[in-house]
Structure formats: C-alpha cells, structure tokens
Amino acid sequence: MSSLRLAASLLVLAAPLYAQNATLQTGVDGAQYVPALTPLLAARGTESELRDIVTRFKADESALNRRWTVDYAPGRRDRFREYYRGWQSRLKELDFDKLSQQGRIDYVLMNHTLRHSLGLLDREEKMWVESAPVLPFGSDIFALVDARRRMEKIDPQKTALTLVGLSKKLEDVSKAVVAGLQTDSGRAGAQRPQPNGEIAPLKVNKVVAHRSAEILNQLKGDLKSWYDFYSGYDPLFTWWARDPYRRADSLMTAYHRTLRERIVGFRTGQPEPIIGDPIGRDAIIADLRDEMIAYDPEDLVRIAEIEFAWSEAEMKKAAKELGFGDNWKAALDKVKELYVPPGEQPELIRRLAFEAIDFIEKKDLVTVPPLARDIWRIEMMSPERQRVSPFFLGGEVIQVSYPTDGMTHEEKLMSMRGNSPYLSHATVHHELIPGHHLQGFMNSRYQAHRRGAFGTPFWTEGWALYWEMLLWDQGFNATPEDRIGALFWRMHRSARIIFSLGFHLGTMTPQQAIDYLVDRVGHERANAEAEVRRSFLGTYPPLYQLAYMMGGLQFRSLQQELVGSGRMTNKAFHDAVLRGGAMPVEMVRAMLTNAPLTREYQTQWLYRGPKGAVR
Predict the structure, then answer these.
(1) pTM for this structure?
(2) Alpha carbon 218 to its chain's center
(3) 3-state secondary structure of 78
(4) Given a cut of 80, is residue 33 above it in pLDDT?
(5) How many Å apart are CA 603 and CA 601, to the nearest integer?
(6) Of all helices (H) and strands (E), which one includes residue 512?
(7) Cβ atoms < 10 Å from Cβ of 525
(8) Which of 183, 166, 184 is nearest to 247 (CA)?
(9) Partners of 195 in beta bridges
(10) What confidence tens digit (pLDDT) does each residue in 390-408 have?
C-alpha cells in the first residue's frame, strides 16, 4: 500500500473519533457559545440598585485586608470595627422603602453581613485573650509590623533591644508552659516571677495550645517578613538586629515545637492530632442567624436524625434487591469492591459527567449553556491532598481522588473503595453539572456582586446536594448499586450535621466523630479520619459541614412550594435560582416569592416545620 493510500485509510478510520471529539470540544456551531443579547439587555432592569455599592464595599474591604495582614492584631480589629460601623451608618441613609425587591435583598444581606462581621471580631478578640498569656511577645511583633506598614523610620539600636526583650519573653513563657506540664496547679494567665526568681507554671489546654501554635507560626512568618524588609538594605539595621532576630526566630521555632509536641501531642512522621477549636452554642446560633437559619442546633440534629433514618430504610430496600437482606453495610461493601482499575478513573468520571448532563437536558430540568458543558476539566489529586480530601472536589475543574503509585497498599485500597463507580455516580454531578461547575459558571455572569459579598455554603453546597435529592426523585439512580452509592452520601451529609454540631457543642470528640462515620455510615477509617480532619482543623468554618444537607433541604422545600404548586416549572425555577446570585436560601425565597422585607429583617423561614417539633 502506498504511503498516500495508507494516510487516506487512517483518515477514514479516525473520522468518527475526530467528529466526536470535535463536537465535544467545539460544538457544531460556534455561535452557540454566544448568548442571545436582547435578554441580557432586558435583564439589566432586574439588577439590584445596590450592585455597585456592594461591589465598592467588597473592594474596600479587600484593600483593608491587604493593608492589615496580621491576624489577631488589636490594631487590625480596631480598624475593621471602624470600617463596618461606618458602613452601618451609611446604609441607614438609604431609603429602604424606595428600593426594588432586588435592592431590598441586598440591603438586608449587607445589614446581616456588617452585624455578623462585627460579631466575628468580638469572637476573635475572645480567642486572643485566651491565647495571649501563651504568646506574651505577640504585642511586640504586632507593633513592629504595624510600624513598618505605617512607613515609620526605624531606630536600629532600639529595635535590637525590642528583639532582645522578645526573646526574653519567649524563654520565660516556654519555661512556664513546661512547668505547667509538671503540675496540676496554675491557670492560663500571665506568668509572674516567683520570689526566688522562678517562673510560675502556666497551664494550657490542648485547644488553646493548638490555636496558639497556629498563631505562633503566623507570627513567626510576620516577623521574618518584617526583618527581610530591612535586612541588607539598611546596613545599621543589619548590624544591630541580625543576631537578636536570629535568636528570636530560633526560640520561636523551639517554642512552637514545645506547644505542638508536648501539649497538642504531635509526633514527627505521624498525622497531626485532630484537636480543633469548638465555638460553643451561642456562637453556633449567631452563625446560624447570619446564614438565615431560624432553627437552633438541637432542631438541626433532629432533622439530621430523621434524614438519616429515611436513608437507612432506603438502604435496606436496595440491599434486599442485591440479596443481602437488611444488611445494608454488606451491600455497601460489595458496591465499594466494584472499583475500576488504576488509570481508568478519569474515563469513568467523563462518562458519569455526561450521563448526568444528558439526563437533566432530556428531562428539561435546567438550562446548561454550551460553553459550560464544554470547558470543565479533570485533574488528579496529590496523595497529600487526599489525606484531607479523600473524595472529589469540584467546580470548573473536578479534582479526582484516586490512588497514585506512591501510596501504601492500604491507602490505595481505601481510596479505590471510597471512590468506586457507584459511589461516584452521585458525586460527579454534585461537583460538575448541575452542581458546582454550573453554579459557578452562572454566578460569574448573573448578579455577580453577590458571589463575594453574600456567598454561603448553604447556597453553594446546598444547591449541589439538592440535585442529589431531585435526581433521586427523577429516577437517575436506576440500579440498586447506584441507589446504594447515592444513599451513602445522603447518610454522610446527615452524619456531618450530627458530628460537627456535636463537636462544637462539646458533646462529641474528634475520635468519636471518626468512629461514628465508620460504624454508622460505613466509611473507610482513613477516609473518616480525613473527613473529620478537614472539618476541625480550620480549613472550613464551623457551619460548613452541616450546610450541605440543610441548604439542600431549603432548596427542596422551596422547589416543592413553587414547582409542586404549579407556579413554576422545574426549569424556570432552577434557572431563576442560578440567575439570582449566591446568597442565603431564605433570600432566594424572598426573591422568587416577592416576600415582604423590612430594613431590620430577621430570619423566620421554618422550612421543616415549627422549632422544637421538626418533621
């Protein structure tokens, strides 16, 4: 065969594959990527009058955050208190009654944001008061960094003395903390020299020690940035300050090790102990009201228990279909074992993603812009990241958790079992379309000012979880294996409410939370540890883990109110939610129902029945 004929034959064989890829990547007609422009012009009349005001608020807030970079510094708190109170005064100048519904929504949300931001500053101050005795040198670092930010001329000799004094405080507090380990006496207060010159013992609990170690690490970095600014540029500074700085830096390193190893319990070569920082019931309620959740923590736990019981009953039905009777855990183990071989997970993700997209388009449930359908991508997660995020993470890029060759045999098996095709069946559309990718795509194109100012996990995670519920109702999970995979995640999200609130209320330890996920939900233990770690080590705010199920139930209740009554179609409802922007779901409801709003509006929507008697 001639080279010309061979090339022609290859082109013929490749044509179907090329056509398929071309359709996927570029579409049949490039014009489909450009939206109709007339509706966009018409939509300008539905935008909030406060759009530019909210944008200005966030821009100025971001500017202050770039200027005041040292967490826990009193000067930073004072400046932000001035800023938020100033905005409260300005907001009151607006004529609320003359605003449109969209404008009133933004006003209410601004009012809530300002009030809650001030409350968070008070919470931070309380936490610093608890940590200040453990970090008595913090005020010195705050002052040095702030003086540089104010561009004050430095006195090298005086600065060296400050660093010497800082080192003395480090030595004293380190001795006091070590002494506190050796006695049951002493309280977490400022240590005072004893008559014989010894330092009084300083007793520190694990929670305060863990938080203080984190703050210490930040302070160490702040001091280094301060020193690097002058060192080498100002010869007198380097001459005076180099040795005192090096000593202070070395003492901070040693003290950080003391807190982490001797109090927190960290051991080199082992995962960091899960300590966390419980915020307590009053703070939980304050955060719930900011998120426009009218229920108390006890109500939410009861709702979670009801949801868990429903999922468990459905699990037993699916288990019977597979021949396991009521033993749903055995059925779940069987489903977990049906994982794909190494190297084949990306193709599985691609197939599951387009299965979900095709399903919702066939059912005409929501508008999927062609560009949104085509631009999402896949990346694989590192082994380090998988220790904290053992499952998918998503958005425009879905990050896939699956074994790499550097993981241990046990880690590989747990990762494959925890991300089998049937467990992935629900999580892929949660992360991509119609979940996080679609909502992120629309967020950046409609009411975009709300995304940074009023975004909440109850909207973000709640929307994606709501689709798991809706697609269940629509018959997306056709096989018992698919239903078991979907129900596993429903149970998981109920469990998140129970263990996260239990932790912050002080009724459940991190270890009890891990055991709960293993024993009641059927998690692999390594995955359960990673789940609890990501919940309590500061990566997520306290209410984040309960926002999945609660936000999903809010959207579900609203969909039943509007679509179930025939007032809207599913597609109209879902498109309206996405085009309304990110905000607490109660405000989505106010937008879609034109509910009356007042200047001092407080959350009142009881989406699961009366408080104390949820259904």
Answers:
(1) 0.88
(2) 21
(3) helix
(4) no
(5) 7
(6) helix 510-516
(7) 13
(8) 166
(9) none
(10) 566 778 888 877 777 777 8
